[in-house]
Amino acid sequence: MSTILAPGTSAPDFTLPVTPDQNLSLRDLRGQPVVTAFYPADWSPVCGDQMALYNEIHSEFQKYKAEVLGISVDGSWCHAAFAKDRHLHFPLLADFEPKGAVAKAYGAYREKEGFCERALFVIDEDGVIVWSYCSPIGVNPGADGILEALENLKETRQSHGQPESSSRAS
Amino acid sequence: MANLKVPVAPADHSIGDEHAPVTLVEYGDYQCPHCAHAHPIVNALRKHFGKQLRFVFRNFPLTEIHSYAEAAAEAAEFAAAEGHFWEMHDGIFEHQNRLGVPLLKELATKIGLSSAKLDAALESHEYLDRIKSDFMGGVRSGVNGTPTFFINGVRHDGSPEFDDLAEAINSQTLKTDRKRAG
Hints:
The complex is a heterodimer.
Chain A (H helix, E strand, L loop, with lengths): L14 E5 L2 E4 L8 E5 L11 H7 L1 H6 L3 E6 L3 H10 L6 E3 L6 H5 L3 E2 L4 E2 L1 E6 L5 E7 L8 H16 L11
Parallel strand pairs in A: 3-4, 4-5
Antiparallel strand pairs in A: 1-2, 3-8, 6-7, 8-9
Chain B lengths: L12 E3 L6 E7 L4 H17 L3 E7 L9 H13 L3 H10 L6 H11 L3 H10 L3 H13 L7 E4 L2 E2 L6 H20 L1
């Protein structure tokens, strides 16, 4: 298993295709929590794969104003077809060219197989990783860890006396 | 390791001896083909372990990919309110290839329940809160897809086939035996 970036590390910025003709940069999401979910591949043959699960609880993530990003080495056309098929409500980013470069920057790339680990990162409003987890490749990590990290983030923010929207740049 | 955050309680749909040394909890979706596959496996496990095993089913409908999963869960909860949960539960899984509102109504009638009352319950989403509460409890416990099993509160990450589940259940009954002997 790879060694993924640890909490306290500044999240490496990236710009990746989010549709065949649009890009999304991590820095554009500064001011809100971001969940980056690296996963091996689209079209997983099980019901309720990682992306389907995050999709189902998208409203829970929204309670924390968190943006969820799925990232794999699949191309943007593949992502588009997959997202349409599974009715996904959050973006999938294509870490396609150079292949796996972003996953490598996060320590979440499997060189031998040529795809991403099942690695999760929760990034705070200031772009710092506050929680990360790498699951065994065959085990869908679920969402409990992410929700707990978002909950902790909210509590920390509240105990510092910051209203929820104060750090939001607009 | 993922652990069950919501303990088994009287409100759960449970079958088997409540004092059984092992409790198997399944989070399932009535439209999921893997759950339908697991259904006879669970029945075989119940038969194999007898009084050693209690089984609990909780709802985990993936509504974005399974358009009838929620209605099916609502129908099972409707039947539960009338004391017929397991008949509806079995009926849905056994006829999953025909899943839809007509099947749910047909099953209700077969069990002796009013299909008009079922219609009303589906229309008003009378049981949706309970289903959502099952679902979020599952998410918090690390349910990561369907079916997800917990054996005495610990998520079973092995295969959901008979041999793997039986082995995991066996190791729990042995643990209990040792405790009783010691």
